[in-house]
């Protein structure tokens, strides 16, 4: 029983996708111009569904395996899924909200990547009169 509690604690402390300071700053700048995960400019589509990730984590770790695969997959979720599998059914308590939060973070990270590095994203920003300067700050095009 002690081993399961320790394993559950490790899952709770380690299983969250986070954003860097620069990604958070870029998201705030994009939001200031009305560009968010829910209202993107251009043809960007969210790679992960928060609802699917949460619902799939009702099954042992499946939501994490979903987040680890696909276009924006993050391999650390294979480990989180395995830990959730080992601690199932109690892992449902943290697995469902963690799947939703991590899917949202993955989508935010991919949104930042799309507008910074993808040519289609840069074109969509230019259509709105925006671009990133040499210090990676969003500016209006004159």
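Sequence proposed for the structure above (142 residues):
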């Amino acid at each position: 029983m002690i081993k399961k509690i320790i394993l559950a604690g490790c899952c709770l402390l380690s299983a969250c996708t986070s954003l860097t300071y620069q990604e958070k700053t870029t998201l705030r700048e994009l939001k200031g111009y009305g560009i968010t995960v829910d209202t993107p400019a251009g043809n960007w589509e969210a790679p992960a569904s928060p609802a699917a990730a949460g619902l799939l984590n009702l099954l042992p770790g499946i939501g994490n395996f979903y987040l680890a695969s696909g276009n924006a997959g993050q391999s650390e979720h294979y480990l989180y899924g395995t830990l959730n599998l080992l601690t199932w059914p109690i892992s449902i308590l943290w697995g469902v909200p963690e799947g939703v939060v991590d899917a949202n973070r993955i989508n935010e990270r991919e949104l930042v990547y799309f507008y910074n590095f993808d040519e289609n994203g840069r074109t969509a920003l230019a259509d709105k009169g925006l671009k990133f300067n040499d210090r990676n700050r969003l500016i209006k095009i004159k």
